[in-house]
Amino acid sequence: MNQEIQITKLPSQRQQQQELPLPPEDGTIVKDHTSQDEQQQAAQGRHGAVQGGGHHHHHHRSSSKLTVLPLIFLIYFEVAGGPYGSERAVRAAGPLFTLLGFLVFPFAWGVPESLVTAELSAALPGNGGFVRWADLAFGPFAGSLLGTWKYLSCVINIAAYPALVADYLGRVIPAVAAGTGGRTRTGTVVGMTLFLSFVNYTGLSIVGWGAVVLGLVSLAPFVLMTGIAVPKMRPRRWTVQVEGSKDWRLFFNTLFWNLNYWDSASTMAGEVERPERTFRRALAVAVVLIAASYLLPLMAATGATDAPPDTWANGYLADAAGIIGGPWLKYWTEAGAVLSSVGMFEAQLSSGAFQLLGMAELGLLPAVFARRATLSRTPWVAIAASTAVTLAVSFLSFDDVVSTANFLYSLGTLLEFAAFLWLRARQPDLKRPYRVPLPLPALAAMCAVPSAFLAYVCVVAGWRVFALAGGLTALGVGLHGAMRLCRARRWLRFEGQQGQGDHAVAPAHTV
Fold first, then answer.
1. pTM metric for this prediction
2. Burial 6-29 (b: 16+ CB within 10 A, else e)
């Protein structure tokens, strides 16, 4: 894999501001004396310019941009992180439906979302990803609301990982175990969160290559388990049925929980080298890698052991590895769960932080969120804010909160698909370095399958989830209104607010 990819120098966003007309606040294109091509270039200048300021920092930043291999593993950890947590699908519907689900779902769900992400990340390659897409399609309110939904879903996910690491440590140190409620466990969760956040601060390139190492080490025990299990597998074991009726709600929620967030890497598009080429390659490899990382270990564990479906609780894959390969493989699999949690924390914290940075560059959040560290170029204010929210969420009950995260993510992704189709219909000539090779009706059909599943996730949610999601959505609406007021009254500084009026475009970043 050639990672010596040459950077094409682009004019800075500030230069584009001086040369191109600007779109108004509501996201529509003003029809003036400029040509349609110039208007679309202006839109891309606001929403998709490669971030990085002027030429003064260009060489420094291009050398640390993400290439294909780190991006593959960042996507891998944002979506999956290994087959940990897939056991409940076997308990809910049995081995056969689980294998079919993890064979079909990564492609029926992951491929459409990956294609949307690849096209729009290439067309609008700035940080913020899906926020930029909704902002350009439907205006700042839609971008802000989608950003709220996705960000809250992201930080709720992040908060689970330090607690999971503490649970594994609790097997060795009883005071750290879940349910103790003592200072030792609290200190472990807080300390782990702060330490992993500091690692994130050191630089996205370090996080990306760290994800490669963590991914290879955490996948290795499952590769060995699959190889050892081949002569022991009996296909008849895959047809064992669950006792009683199947729990389809748990089954589909487990599939969804394990295979969402394909679009999260788009929030870091401004940090990716040649995004028009890198994204589509990384997403294509990630789809296959993620499908295999679930399907093969589950085939091995269900085909080589006689455990009935009701024994498949979270963590059973480590027990299955011990049955198949011995205690050493069980311990390695458990250690892999810790490493996987670390990788998912780092990848998703990066995604959330760069989303806040992108929203600040669009003027949807105060300019302070666009501040970057001098050496690592990471958005340190956004990382600190995300860490604080994660710590607060870490000590809440996760039963309804996690369901709410799924609900909010579903709402955001439905809006994301709508923005994709709207931009294809209303701006067909928008420069798209990569374009999904399908006409608009076929694209609508492509998005219909995952959209139907997203609608299902929303419909089956309970009343408490509806109430909590409604409250958080109202919070997002209020936040957007508050930001507009602060910008108009100049109570806070926003990007581009330099005496040019409320519609000024943000400079690349504030240091």
1. 0.84
2. eeeeeebbbebbeebbbbeeebeb
